[in-house]
């Protein structure tokens, strides 16, 4: 899997409601490293 940076992770939201055809070509560009933000994710979501 990937852990996108918080600043660019909103680009992934389209995949929640968008449906693609089998032959569609999808180009997605993400920058940053979400592993640096992992501690913030853990605190925000209350993960133990």
Observed structural traits:
2 helices; 48 residues; mainly alpha; 25% helix
Terminal Cα span: 20 Å
- How many beta strands in the DSSP annotation? 0
Structural category is mainly alpha
**Order of helix and strand elements from N to C terminus:** HH
Give the overall shape. elongated
| Proportion of residues in extended strands | under 5%
Poorly predicted regions are none
Quick rundown:
This protein is mainly α and 48 residues long. It contains 2 helices and no strands.
Description:
- The two termini are 20 Å apart.
- The longest helix is centred in the C-terminal third of the chain and has 8 residues, at 38-45.
- The protein has one domain (9-45).
- It has two helices and no strands.
- The protein is mainly α and 48 residues long.
Layout of secondary structure:
Elements: H1 14-17, H2 38-45
């Amino acid at each position: 899997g990937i852990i996108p940076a918080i600043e660019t992770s909103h680009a992934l939201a389209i995949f929640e409601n968008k449906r693609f055809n089998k032959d569609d070509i999808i180009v997605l560009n993400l920058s940053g490293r979400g592993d640096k933000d992992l501690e913030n994710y853990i605190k925000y979501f209350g993960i133990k």
